[in-house]
């Protein structure tokens, strides 16, 4: 029986991936948490740990298998090493599920508080810990599925990803505990209350979806450029020549336009692969734009710091000014944590080692009219990235280099996160990537237009749209995630008191 539950846990974890993009079967997110609760609710500590670990391994083994592509293509390892290391990472990440649901066993007591508050709190606790422990990996949060869930989408600007994830698990618990938990399903008052709660949430959601938390402050024309150059060519002399030629062509085409309205060109992460000094950026601007005030360009590039180290940055040229440095770096992709240990590891597998440093500035790109809050690639998964400038920005930008994901589910998951950030802040988001998927996303997280993942040797492509600038803050962008974390702490505190009280009365 124990082996069957381990397999069931693994299958549930794997099935949960279907609720995320590119599949988008979000109703599954209402099914899996409740089924996992039914699976572990009466088990001892040891079985709870291993069933939860098996659930986590099913989730991560299928959910992040795109990392194999980045290890083999970007890191230079062979196919079998890529699979092995991806499974090792999945095995490590599974401990977060095992730990959080083992806490559920420790804190649970004989009342309905377990099902309706403690279990959802343990689920979200595991996600919160994963955001910052061991360099952090804020991926596959259950709340991201609500960007496609029309029953909960209205809560995104208020609760953020942890809050909407908590509500998803709570609704799942209301359904499954009422049906399968023998200590509850005979209690008509609990079933009635659960039903009323679910209906109330869905009714509130309909009105919240219509709520405008931010205000329109203007508009402009924007052009996303997707170079469609493979990672193996990008750093070659031929690739650099192609990109430079493409930049000059796109700028030339838009300088000749007769329209007087400002137009901004958005290029992806590390468009220019030749590292630049800050003084060289000024020379580049004069060469390309000659201080043109109707055309702005944002380019991704590597900038050499004063100490001679590299930073992954975005630079604004022409009508758009400023420099933004990436702060949340990809572990093993852009820097090596515990390098004294892992450099030997990389030498053994013949990996290419990164050498990027994190920037410190949080300045906006733009001018007096357009104020752009930026995120480079992976750091869009961190909620704080846009929150730091939420009171002064009126547009969000995500420059990425998703060609290291390959033609996997990775780019779709990344785009889903970007859509959530747009809805969370209720501001338009522009996303420019090297090989797709680039997109214009409105303030509700809906895709206005997008590109597909490019095929090999596809020519560069572009998207053009009128973008609405939105000023102001949503409740979440004002408060951030901390109030909800405090709410989780209160749940665990109450659980401790209830556990202590039950133990006293039992004795």
In short:
Helix content is 48%, strand content 16%.
Notes on the protein architecture:
With 507 residues, this protein is α/β, with parallel strands linked by helices. It is 48% helix and 16% strand. α11 links the parallel β3 and β4 (295-304). α1 (2-16) runs antiparallel to α2 and α7 (156-180) crosses α14. The two termini are 32 Å apart.
Topology:
Layout: H1 2-16, H2 32-40, H3 45-63, H4 67-74, H5 79-107, H6 113-132, H7 156-180, H8 188-208, E1 215-226, H9 231-234, H10 237-255, E2 263-266, E3 272-276, H11 278-288, E4 295-304, E5 310-318, E6 323-325, H12 339-349, E7 356-357, E8 365-366, E9 371-376, H13 384-387, E10 395-400, H14 410-425, E11 429-433, E12 439-441, E13 447-450, E14 461-471, H15 475-479, H16 482-506
Parallel strand pairs: 1-2, 2-4, 3-4, 5-7, 9-10, 10-11
Antiparallel strand pairs: 1-14, 4-5, 5-6, 8-9, 11-12, 12-13
Helix pairs in contact: 1-2, 1-3, 2-7, 3-5, 4-5, 5-6, 6-7, 6-16, 7-8, 7-14
List keywords for this structure.
alpha/beta, 16 helices, eight-stranded mixed beta sheet, six-stranded mixed beta sheet, 507 residues, 48% helix, globular
Using DSSP, what is the number of strands?
A: 14
Share of β-strand residues: 15-25%
The helix/strand class is: alpha/beta
Distance between the amino and carboxyl termini: 32 Å
Low-confidence stretches: none
**Fraction in helix:** 40-55%
Largest sheet: 8 strands, mixed
* Tally of individual helices: 16
Element-level helix/strand string: HHHHHHHHEHHEEHEEEHEEEHEHEEEEHH
Radius of gyration: 24 Å
Give the integer mean of the pLDDT values: 88
Shape field: globular
């Amino acid at each position: 029986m124990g082996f069957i539950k381990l397999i069931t846990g693994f299958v549930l974890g794997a099935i949960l991936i279907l609720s995320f993009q590119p599949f988008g079967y979000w109703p599954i997110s209402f099914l899996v948490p409740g089924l996992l609760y039914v699976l572990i609710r009466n088990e001892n500590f040891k079985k709870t740990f291993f069933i939860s670990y098996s659930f986590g391994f099913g989730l991560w083994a299928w959910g992040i298998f795109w990392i194999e592509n980045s290890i083999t293509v970007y890191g230079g390892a062979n196919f079998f090493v890529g699979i092995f290391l991806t499974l090792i990472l999945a095995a490590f990440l599974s401990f977060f599920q095992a730990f959080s649901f083992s806490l559920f066993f420790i804190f649970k007591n004989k009342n309905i508080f377990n099902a309706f508050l403690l279990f959802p709190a343990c689920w979200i606790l595991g996600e919160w810990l994963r955001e910052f422990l061991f360099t952090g990996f804020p991926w596959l949060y259950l709340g991201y599925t609500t960007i496609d869930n029309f029953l909960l989408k209205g809560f995104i600007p208020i609760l953020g990803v942890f809050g909407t994830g908590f509500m998803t698990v709570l609704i799942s618990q209301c359904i499954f505990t009422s049906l399968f938990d023998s200590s509850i399903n005979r209690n008509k008052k609990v079933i009635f209350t659960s039903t009323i709660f679910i209906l109330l949430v869905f009714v509130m959601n309909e009105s919240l979806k219509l709520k405008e938390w931010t205000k329109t402050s203007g508009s402009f024309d924007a052009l996303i450029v997707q170079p469609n150059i493979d990672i193996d060519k990008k750093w070659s002399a031929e690739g650099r020549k192609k990109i430079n030629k493409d930049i000059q062509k796109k700028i030339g085409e838009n300088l000749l336009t007769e329209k007087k309205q400002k137009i901004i060109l958005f290029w992806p992460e590390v468009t220019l692969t030749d590292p630049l000094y800050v003084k060289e950026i000024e020379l580049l601007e004069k060469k390309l734009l000659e201080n043109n005030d109707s055309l702005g360009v944002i380019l991704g590039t590597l900038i050499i710091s004063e100490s001679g180290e590299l930073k992954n940055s975005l630079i604004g040229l022409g009508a758009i000014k400023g420099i933004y440095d990436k702060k949340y770096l990809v572990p093993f992709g852009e820097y090596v944590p515990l390098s004294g240990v892992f450099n030997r590891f990389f030498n053994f597998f013949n990996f290419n080692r990164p050498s990027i440093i994190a920037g410190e500035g949080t300045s906006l790109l733009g001018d007096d009219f357009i104020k752009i809050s930026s995120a480079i690639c992976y750091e869009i998964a961190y909620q704080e990235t846009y929150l730091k400038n939420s009171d002064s920005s009126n547009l969000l930008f995500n420059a990425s280099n998703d060609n290291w994901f390959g033609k996997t589910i990775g780019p779709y998951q990344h785009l889903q996160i970007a859509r959530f950030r747009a809805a969370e802040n209720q501001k338009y988001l522009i996303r420019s990537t090297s090989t797709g998927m680039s997109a214009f996303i409105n303030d509700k997280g809906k895709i206005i237009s997008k590109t597909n993942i490019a095929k090999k040797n596809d020519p560069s492509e572009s998207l053009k749209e009128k973008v609405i600038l939105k000023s102001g803050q949503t409740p979440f962008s004002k408060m951030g995630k901390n109030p909800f974390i405090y709410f989780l702490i209160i749940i665990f505190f109450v659980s401790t008191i209830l556990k202590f009280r039950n133990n006293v009365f039992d004795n």
